[in-house]
Amino acid sequence: MAALSEKDAAAYLDARPRYPIDWYKKIAERTQDHKFAWDVGTGNGQAAIGLVEHYENVVATDINEAQLKRAIKHSRISYHHTPKNMSEDEMVALIGGENSMDLIVAAQAVHFFDLTTFYNVAKRVLRKDGGLIAIWVYNDIIISPEIDPIMKSLVDSTLPFRTPIMNLAFDSYKTLPFPFESIGMGSEGEPVRLDIPHKLSLKGFIGFLKSWQPAMKAKEQGVELVDEDLITKFEEAWGDENQVKDVYYKAHMIVGKIPEMRSESDKVSEDSNKDNLLQTDVGRKQERRQPSDDENRQSKKQNTSEDEAC
Ligand SMILES: C[S@@+](CC[C@H](N)C(=O)[O-])C[C@H]1O[C@@H](n2cnc3c(N)ncnc32)[C@H](O)[C@@H]1O
């Protein structure tokens, strides 16, 4: 996150939602064991704190040391800095070793990662028997019929300034590769839609807008999207400035497990089924689009920008 004043940073935190506690419960019910969880891209540790209710030990990592210094402390959460140049082997060892994690969570974070590295590490540390990986993103806020259309125009105006990272998030993870097997809670290309309820003050909302990454990107290019006129419009649409509103964020989640090893005969039969499917519309829809070499290169280049990271 680009540097914010203490006041703006507090307002920004006020606007950021807490993930519903039943999310952790529902996911934890589906993992076989509850010894170790890894919260990757932990930020201030809010998901780690949710996970520690269900797992004996939580390892929480982040590329940004400054974020970790502000993270919420807990005796069963160990926070670790994972710098950009850390090797996959070092990362696997730091997190807990091969086949060790019952659950991996990346909350509002995976779109920042070098996906090849992350998925390589995830596949190594995730338990083959009963381990799960869950990723989620929120990308839209529903406040009131007066405010939502103004927000929509603002969101639309960010289009020319969005980075590929932002596009993955704006796209609700529908175009994000997710090479894990579905357990019925979303799948690659088809995340599940969830709501995150939140109480929001006008001050928190304005603070959020001022530090909102798409608007910051526009500002870097000399375009002020969140100007005083727009803020006045939002203030008028809000009504009583002291009113704290019940709002919700639209979130999107995918949970998966390590794909099961298939025998050669399974593969042959699956391939012939796939050929049959390809001859139908359903089959065409189910064919996964693989990223081109160019896209892979771009995705590597775009990732892990600490400035952009929160
Ligand atoms: C939007 S914040 C989300 C923080 C937290 N998970 C939450 O939900 O509140 C994204 C976090 O991902 C971290 N991050 C970005 N790239 C990373 C990487 N390659 N490895 C680990 N963490 C990364 C950022 O530093 C930041 O703390």
Number of strands: 8
Based on helices, strands and strand pairing, what is the structural class? alpha/beta
| Helix-strand string | HHEHEHEHEHEHHEEHHHEHHH
Give the overall shape, derived from the CA principal axes: globular
User: Approximately how much beta-strand content do the residues carry?
Assistant: 15-25%
Average pLDDT value?
86
Percent of residues in helices comes to: 40-55%
Radius of gyration, CA atoms, in whole angstroms: 21 Å
Give the end-to-end Cα distance, rounded to a whole number of Å: 5 Å
Distinct ligands, ions and cofactors found in the model: S-adenosylmethionine
Largest sheet report: 8 strands, mixed
**SS summary, helix count:** 14
Identify low-pLDDT runs.
Answer: 273-310
Region (Disordered): 262-310
Biased composition (Basic and acidic residues): 262-274, 282-298
Organism: Brassica rapa subsp. trilocularis
InterPro entries: Methyltransf_11, SAM-dependent_MTases_sf
Explain what this protein looks like in three dimensions.
With 310 residues, the chain is an alpha/beta fold. The chain has 14 helices and eight strands. It has helices at 6-15, 21-30, 46-51, 65-69, 88-95, 115-125, 148-157, 164-170, 202-210, 213-220, 228-238, 264-278, 281-286, 293-302, and strands spanning 36-40, 57-62, 77-81, 103-107, 132-142, 181-182, 192-200, 245-257. Strands 1, 2, 3, 4, 5, 6, 7 and 8 form an eight-stranded mixed beta sheet that branches. Helix 1 packs across helix 9 and helix 5 crosses helix 6. It is globular and about 60 Å long. The termini are close together. The relative contact order is 0.16. The model is unreliable at 273-310 (pLDDT under 50). The protein binds S-adenosylmethionine. The site of S-adenosylmethionine (SAM) has 20 residues, from helix 3 and strand 2.
